[in-house]
Amino acid sequence: MFEHSFVARHNWDSEKVNAGRINGHLRKKIIILLILFVALFACKENLLNVKIKFDQIYGLQKGDRVIFQQNHIGNVTEVFYSKEGYYTIGIVINKDFVDAATEHSRFFIISDPRDTDKMAVEITQARKDGSPLKNNSVVEGSSKTSAFVDQILNELLDGFGGLKKQFEHFSEELQSIPESEEFKNLEEELKRLGEEMGRSGEAVREKIQKEVLPQLKEELEELRERLRQFGREDELEPIEIEMRKMTEI
After folding, report:
1. Mean of pLDDT values over 14-21
2. Whole-model pTM?
3. Could you give the CA distance from residue 156 to residue 65 in angstroms, rounded to a whole number?
4. What contacts 117, CB < 8 A, 6 or more positions away?
5. DSSP string across 173-207
């Protein structure tokens, strides 16, 4: 009976030791998993995820590259067609290039310059010093035509700025506005914008009428107020004619 009791106690002690070992291994596995989870979470926090809407994707696929100034800065993570009738592209941008995606960034689908059998998402910046996009932002994709429109808009805004600077320096001695080089350049750019509207589809025309023209009208009104001080607001009539043409397209 004593022998039986000793064996039972020995077995019980062995089971306790084994249970302790199992619990120790389990705790180690849990700690390792927690460390891996935290590391993975930290890595994801350093990445920027952006969703982009496109009317066409031209064969773009998951895994294709994201490019900024010829640098490979990320990849396409998802591609799906929404019930609203457009494609949504998910991209992830590496932490070292998150500043490439700002409020002034434009997103294009292009042929991958490194592998012409594949497509890529190219990021450009229409203007510098824009606010960075937040994680999981949703933006509109661009076409090369809309990029051309943005370029003209920037040139037009520069033209208005040049005319306003003339007032700051010359005041009442300012030469006739229509004869100035800035005015002629401004008029020419407006004509180019009107021609682009005539050639482009509905989406581009809507962009010009809703985004571009309101900005130009604000600049025109500010310039008109300055000219009114000298009784010369009628000199803006050629610009107003070109802008009216665009609202009628």
Report:
1. 54
2. 0.51
3. 34
4. none
5. GPPPGGGSHHHHHHHHHHHHHHHHHHHS-HHHHHH
